[in-house]
Amino acid sequence: MSALQGTVSLIDDDPFVLQVHATLLRSISLTVRCFTSSLAFLEDHVPGACECILSDLRMPQMGGLQLQAELLSRGVEAPIIFITGHGDVGTAVEAMRRGAFDYVEKPVHGQHLLDRVNAALAVSLQRHRERLQREAREARLSLLTAQERKVAQWVMQGLSSREIAELAGLSVRTVENHRARLMDKLHVSSVVELVRLLL
């Protein structure tokens, strides 16, 4: 999993804990960035393709749930793992309900932490790939004219060029031209590929 070259952002107000966790994560060749507060992290964070956040749940100024809420409001999709003491398990469960990736109880078991971080990084990379696919799809669709969009929808419904021509009040040749152009713009060569792209 370290081949992903993922980045882990560590947030904890205890410098010793930061150092211990950073050393552990760097042992599997991950890039580690350390922050002593949620605010410092938020000021510095730039979204990456393969990243996760490992944060203490209880911190001064801005605790874990507040950090999570702020990340959600900013549209940050990086998986977040909370480190929690026994008394904070209820809060950690609430964080999970709000979309946190996981929580790890203190005292932290090294291998368990590495496993959860690796799993979070894999999710982050998958989300990044899906985001790129969505953006590519939207970019292609933006090239279509309003008429080509209509024709594409009719093609997806299984209508023939003659049926589409009757619905649109166009000649069959014009419909065929629209079909050819939209297939070219969307980089698809069959109706099956068109359906996969548009669904």
What does this entry look like structurally?
The protein has 199 residues and is of the alpha/beta class. 56% of the residues lie in helices and 13% in strands. The chain is built from 9 helices and 5 strands, in the order βαβαβαβαβααααα. Strands 2-1-3-4-5 form a 5-stranded parallel sheet, with helices on both faces. α4 links the parallel β4 and β5 (102-105). The radius of gyration is 24 Å and the shape is elongated. The two termini are 32 Å apart.
State the helical fraction. 55-70%
Q: What distance lies between the first and last C-alpha atoms, to the nearest angstrom?
A: 32 Å
Mean pLDDT: 91
Proportion of beta-strand residues: 5-15%
Number of E-state strands: 5
Q: Structural class, from helix and strand content?
A: alpha/beta
Low-pLDDT runs: none
User: Order of strands across the biggest sheet?
Assistant: 2-1-3-4-5
Alpha carbon gyration radius: 24 Å
3D shape: elongated
Number of helices: 9
- Listing every helix as H and every strand as E from the N terminus to the C terminus, the arrangement reads EHEHEHEHEHHHHH
Q: Give a quick account of the main beta sheet: strands, pairing sense, barrel closure.
A: 5 strands, parallel
What keyword list fits this structure?
alpha/beta; single chain; five-stranded parallel β-sheet; 5 strands; 199 residues; elongated
The gist of it:
The protein has 199 residues and is of the alpha/beta class.
Which helices and strands occur, and which strands form pairs?
Layout: E1 7-11, H1 15-26, E2 31-35, H2 38-44, E3 51-56, H3 64-73, E4 80-84, H4 89-97, E5 102-105, H5 110-141, H6 146-156, H7 161-168, H8 172-185, H9 191-198
Parallel strand pairs: 1-2, 1-3, 3-4, 4-5
